[in-house]
Design a protein that fits this description.
The chain has 359 residues and is mainly beta. The protein is 9% helix and 26% strand. The strands form four sheets. A seven-stranded antiparallel beta sheet has the order 7-6-9-4-1-12-11. The longest helix has 10 residues. The relative contact order is 0.18.
Length: 359
Amino acid sequence: MTCAAGSAARRATTAGATTAASAPAVPAARADGEAPARTDGTATARTDHGAPACSDGTAGAAAAGTARTAPRSAAVLTVVAPGVATSVQDLGRPGLAHLGVPASGPTDRRSFTLANRLVGNPENTPALEVTIGGLGVTLSEDRYVSVTGAPAPVTVDGVPVDRPALVRLPAGCLLEIGRPWAGCRSYLAVSGGIEVDPVLGSASRDWLTGLGPEPVRAGTGLRVGPARPVPAVPLELAFSVVPAGGALTARFRWGPRHDLFGAADRRRLTSTAWRLSGQCDRVGARLTGPALAIGSVDLASEGMVRGAIQVPPSGEPIIFLSDHPVTGGYPVIGVLTDADTDLVGQAKPGDELRLAPTG
């Protein structure tokens, strides 16, 4: 089987899952160069991951040894199918709220930094955030890639990848990420990282203000930096935390304006099985359920943070996510923990959410 780059580029990305029964699975890689250690302490041999041969006729996997490096900007990631909403993200531009600039960054920070660590990149290296799947990409040279976050079917030239947390992608082969079966946002990191011109010190796309690189489109070419050594990590330990059915519980701390709400409303906030409405994006997630009574509240605008639970006049809470506004004039009854803000960022409309105070 060969990676015919020309024919691959013409194929549409499939959103549905490709089952392992239709083609042999492509096992994932563990490390670049050296054989990774098994969890029982013994060494395991490197494999070619079952990957197809490259479009230039060479073997799909690199020979064992030192990771290949390339001159700056020699490698290019080409978007064949952009998916529903795919953007470049790094850890954002914190510290600029006083200038009216949101922090932005990945909606699920844990999954984003995990993807970068698995391919040997610093945690802040730009990567792709993929919402509801549908992404198809090729690389101009062999690289290790990592897909984390919302678990989704991943294929290389139509062959299912059994462990997409780390896989060698041969040059010219089409990697596709299908629709997740849990959660909604997946992350694609490439060894060496995506290189784009930073805006205010960050490569993140902010969907609220329009700062940062444009959302990717079919035909977008993104520079990739020199390959990095890939660490040997037991992939059994490399997992993302996403909603997996049933009620999702998010922990929060009261304040700063919880004293504006009566005891009955505070109990209602923590006892209600809220549902995520259809009004969910990178800015925030609106909840539906019994309205909280805030009455006539006259607040001066004050600073907002990621994870803030704001209560607008409708009485239905909004949880702010990565691209939230930096100020707001409605009371914030509590703020989610960082880890559980990541979790809410993976929730889909219709998911059930319970809010649990931690203090």
